C-alpha cells in the first residue's frame, strides 16, 4: 500500500466508519478489515492519528485499528519478513518520535498501543524504547513529560506481566537498570507537588498527576525491586504521602471554617468521603490516625456549624442555611447515624493495647486523660469522644434507643476470661457516661446502680479492674445528673472496699468532691 496514494482512501474510510448511518458505516468497516494485513496500512494509520489537525473521532478510530491489529501485524511478518521488518522498524520509530498528543483519551490509547508492541519487541528488536522514554520524562515541557510518563507506566505494566522465565529475567535486568532513576523521578515530582500546594501554585494539580504516574511505574518495577515497598512503609516516602493527604483535608477544614456558606456545595461529598473511610470497611488497611482525626473533625464541624442551623422560623433563616440543613437531614438518616454510633462505641472507644500497657505501668498517668483545650483537633481518643457527644446531642432522639440497646446486651457481670467482652463493656459504659445529660429521661440510673453497677464494683478479679474503674468513672458522670441521696451509703461502702486498689485511687478521688 503506497502511503501517498492510500492516505486519502484510508482517511475517507475511517471518516465513514465514524458515521452513525449504518449504510455508510458497514462498508467502511469491511474495507478497513480487508486492509488489516496489507503492507503500509499501519504506516497510514500512524500518520493519521498523529496528525492533530484531523477530526478527533477519526484519529481515535485510527489508534484503535492500529492497536487491535498489532497481533495480526506480527503474524504477517512470517509471510514477508524483509518488508515487514522494515515497516515495523519505521512504525516503532514513529510511535516514539513525539510525545505530544493533546487529547487525553487518544494519548492513553497510544500508550497502551506502544506497550503492546513493547511486549512483543522490547528489548530485543526495540532497544531504544526505554532510553527514549527516560529521556522524554526529563524534558521541561509539561505535555511531553506527562505523555512520556503515561507511556512509561503502560510499558512497565505490560512487561511486568510477562510470565515466561526468559522474559522475567529480561524484565528483571531492565528494572534493575532503571529502578533508581524511576524512584528519584517520583521523589522529584512529589517534592515539587508539596512545594506548590503549600505556596498555592496553580500548577500543583499537574505535578500531582506526574507524581501519580511516576508512582504507578515504580509499582510495576517493584516486582523485582522489593526495596521500594520497604521505603514506602518505613521512611520518608510514606511520610510524604501522608503529609499530602493531610494537606488536602486541611484545605477542606479551613475552607469550611472560614467560608461555611461557600462550602455548602461540598457538604454532601465531604460527608460521604469522611464517613466512608472512617465508619465503613472502605478505610480498613488504608487509613492512618491523623487522617481519621481530620475526617472526624470534618464531620463534627459540619454537624455543629452554626451557619447550618436554621432559626426557629423559616422566614428568619437564610436560604443558604436552609439548603445546608436539608443536606444534613438527608445524609444523616437512621442507618447512617446508627452505623456511626455503633462504630464509634464498638471500635473507636475500645482501649488500645498501648493504653492498657500504660495503665499497667503508670495508673495515675493513665487516669489523667487528654481531654482539655483543643486536644480533640489532634488526638484520636478525645476526637472520637467529642464527635460522639456532638452527634449524640444533635440526634439524641435517634441515637438514644441505639445506645440503650447496646447497654441491654451487657446485662450482668462479664466473664473475666472474655477480654473482648470486657473492652466492649468499658466502651459502652464510656458512651453512657459521656451522654449522661442527653440520657436523663431515658436511663433510670438509680435502678441500674442497684441492679448491676454496684455488683460489678464488688467483682474482685484482677481482670475486672477495667470495669471497676469504668463504673467508678460512670458514677462520677451521673452523680450531678441523677443519683438519689439514699443510695450514697451503698456507694460509700463500695468505695471504702476499693480504696486498697491503687489502680482506682485516682478515679475514686474524682467522684469524692461531688459527693461532699
TrEMBL record:
It comes from the Eukaryota. The keyword Membrane does not apply. InterPro entries: ARM-like (IPR011989), ARM-type_fold (IPR016024), Importin-beta_N (IPR001494). Residues 28-101 form the Importin N-terminal domain. One of its GO terms (biological process) is protein import into nucleus. Pfam families: IBN_N (PF03810). It is found in: Nucleus. GO terms for molecular function: small GTPase binding. The keyword Transport applies. Keywords: Nucleus, Transport. GO terms for cellular component: cytosol; nuclear envelope. Its main location: nucleus. This is Importin 11. It comes from Callorhinchus milii.
Amino acid at each position: 500500500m503506497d502511503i501517498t496514494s492510500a492516505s486519502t482512501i484510508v482517511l475517507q474510510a475511517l471518516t465513514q466508519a465514524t458515521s452513525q448511518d449504518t449504510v455508510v458505516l458497514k462498508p467502511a468497516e469491511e474495507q478497513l478489515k480487508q486492509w488489516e494485513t496489507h503492507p503500509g496500512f499501519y504506516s497510514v494509520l500512524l500518520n493519521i492519528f498523529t496528525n492533530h489537525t484531523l477530526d478527533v473521532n477519526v484519529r481515535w478510530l485510527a489508534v484503535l485499528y492500529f492497536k487491535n491489529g498489532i497481533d495480526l501485524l506480527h503474524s504477517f511478518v512470517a509471510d514477508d519478513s524483509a518488508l515487514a521488518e522494515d515497516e515495523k522498524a519505521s512504525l516503532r520509530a514513529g510511535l516514539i518520535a513525539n510525545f505530544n498528543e493533546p487529547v487525553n483519551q487518544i494519548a492513553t490509547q497510544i500508550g497502551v498501543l506502544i506497550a503492546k508492541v513493547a511486549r512483543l519487541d522490547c528489548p530485543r528488536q526495540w532497544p531504544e524504547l526505554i532510553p527514549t522514554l527516560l529521556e522524554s520524562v526529563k524534558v521541561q515541557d509539561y505535555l511531553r513529560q506527562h505523555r512520556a510518563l503515561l507511556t512509561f507506566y503502560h510499558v512497565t505494566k505490560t512487561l511486568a506481566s510477562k510470565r515466561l522465565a526468559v522474559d522475567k529475567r529480561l524484565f528483571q535486568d531492565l528494572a534493575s537498570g532503571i529502578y533508581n532513576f524511576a524512584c528519584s523521578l517520583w521523589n522529584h515530582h512529589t517534592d515539587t507537588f508539596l512545594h506548590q500546594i503549600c505556596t498555592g501554585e496553580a500548577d500543583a494539580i499537574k505535578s500531582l498527576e506526574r507524581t501519580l504516574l511516576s508512582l504507578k511505574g515504580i509499582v510495576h518495577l517493584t516486582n523485582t525491586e522489593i526495596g521500594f515497598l520497604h521505603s514506602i512503609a518505613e521512611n520518608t516516602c510514606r511520610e510524604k504521602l501522608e503529609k499530602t493527604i493531610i494537606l488536602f483535608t486541611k484545605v477542606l477544614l479551613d475552607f469550611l471554617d472560614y467560608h461555611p456558606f461557600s462550602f455548602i456545595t461540598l457538604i454532601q461529598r465531604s460527608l460521604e468521603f469522611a464517613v466512608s473511610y472512617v465508619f465503613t470497611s472502605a478505610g480498613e488497611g488504608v487509613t492512618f490516625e491523623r487522617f481519621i482525626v481530620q475526617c472526624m473533625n470534618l464531620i463534627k464541624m459540619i454537624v455543629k456549624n452554626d451557619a447550618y442551623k436554621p432559626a426557629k422560623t423559616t422566614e428568619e433563616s437564610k436560604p443558604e442555611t436552609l439548603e445546608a440543613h436539608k443536606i444534613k437531614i438527608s445524609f444523616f438518616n437512621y442507618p447512617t447515624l446508627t452505623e456511626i454510633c455503633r462504630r464509634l462505641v464498638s471500635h473507636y472507644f475500645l482501649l488500645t493495647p498501648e493504653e492498657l500497657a500504660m495503665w499497667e505501668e503508670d495508673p495515675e498517668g493513665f487516669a489523667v486523660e487528654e481531654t482539655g483545650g483543643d486536644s480533640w483537633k489532634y488526638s484520636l481518643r478525645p476526637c472520637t469522644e467529642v464527635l460522639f457527644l456532638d452527634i449524640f446531642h444533635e440526634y439524641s432522639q435517634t441515637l438514644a434507643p441505639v445506645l440503650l440497646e447496646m447497654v441491654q446486651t451487657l446485662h450482668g457481670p462479664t466473664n473475666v476470661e472474655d477480654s473482648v467482652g470486657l473492652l466492649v463493656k468499658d466502651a459502652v459504659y464510656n458512651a453512657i457516661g459521656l451522654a449522661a445529660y442527653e440520657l436523663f429521661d431515658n436511663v433510670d440510673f438509680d435502678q441500674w446502680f442497684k441492679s448491676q453497677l454496684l455488683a460489678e464494683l464488688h467483682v474482685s478479679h484482677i481482670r475486672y479492674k477495667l470495669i471497676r474503674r469504668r463504673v467508678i468513672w460512670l458514677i462520677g458522670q451521673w452523680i450531678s445528673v441523677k443519683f438519689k441521696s439514699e443510695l450514697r451509703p451503698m456507694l460509700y461502702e463500695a468505695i471504702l472496699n476499693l480504696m486498697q486498689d491503687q489502680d482506682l485511687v485516682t478515679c475514686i478521688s474524682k467522684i469524692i468532691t461531688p459527693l461532699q
